[in-house]
Write a structure and sequence with these properties.
Layout lengths: L6 E5 L3 H13 L3 E5 L2 H10 L4 E4 L8 H10 L6 E5 L4 H9 L4 E4 L4 H19 L7 E4 L2 E4 L4 E3 L5 E3 L2 H12 L4 E3 H9 L7 H15 L9 E4 L3 E4 L2
Parallel strand pairs: 1-2, 1-3, 3-4, 4-5
Antiparallel strand pairs: 6-7, 7-8, 8-9, 10-12, 11-12
Length: about 230
């Protein structure tokens, strides 16, 4: 049994297999929620937190690949393990390309499934433990309130942040000292369905320098890394 009762969303429309998997997962100590079609799966993901999703591809209403893609468009990084009878190389590539973390074909070995589940949940747990910032953050004499989307700059000027400015600022701060790629910014701030130009993101960085740097021409905090992305340092 697991020390922590991790939660799994099981998305599988074949009733016998679904019940068998659910029973075995519960015997392993997991808390299991069920969805039997793509629409139901998306609704549950929108309303609840899960440590892992087990996803069939051939689902009623909305197929598993589309569900996976939709979850990623909505910036949800929950681990997704596709469990499918579709076993060609192109099927696997498509599933992984659309956002799945792992792909296991039917029929499968139950012990192997449990090992993959355990590894994905553990990996996600370590990622979640990465330093995050709360609603309020201070650096270089600047005070940020991410929730209220406003700030007080080092010179006392009050700044109203747009939603995307607040999201990008928080993303950079939470990855302090690391280069955040344009692809990551696209995923978190804009979503996969909108493609801002590099110039658009550059303009946000220029705004941050104007707001928060004492010398915007020689920035200490907000840096563009040509051809790679952007970086915050405190």
């Amino acid at each position: 049994m697991k020390d922590h009762k991790a939660s799994i969303l099981l998305v599988e429309d074949e009733e016998h297999l679904h019940e068998t998997l659910k029973l075995n997962l519960e015997l392993e100590g997991y808390e299991v929620s069920s969805a039997f079609n793509g629409t139901e799966a998306l609704k549950k993901v929108g309303n609840e937190y899960f440590d892992l999703i087990i996803m069939d591809i051939m689902l009623p209403e909305i197929d598993g690949i589309s569900v996976t893609e939709s979850i990623r468009i909505n910036h949800n990084e929950v681990p997704i393990l596709i469990l499918s009878a579709k076993n060609t190389g192109s099927d696997r590539v498509l599933g992984l390309k659309k956002g799945a973390d792992d792909y296991l074909t039917k029929p499968f070995n139950l012990e192997e499934l449990f090992l993959r589940i355990e590894k994905l949940i553990e990996k996600n747990k370590k990622l979640q433990e990465k330093e995050t910032v709360g609603d309020n953050y201070e650096f270089g004499g600047n005070q940020i309130d991410f929730k209220a989307q406003d700030a007080v700059a080092w010179n006392g000027e009050r700044i109203e942040l747009s939603r995307k400015e607040a999201m990008l600022l928080k993303l950079l701060v939470e990855n302090k000292g690391e280069v955040v790629t344009r692809e990551k910014i696209l995923q978190v701030v804009w979503g996969y369905n909108v493609y801002p130009t590099t110039r658009t993101i550059d303009n946000f960085i220029l705004s941050f320098r104007k707001y928060f740097e004492q010398d915007s021409r020689n920035p200490r905090h907000f840096h563009s890394v040509r051809g790679v992305g952007y970086k915050y340092t405190d």
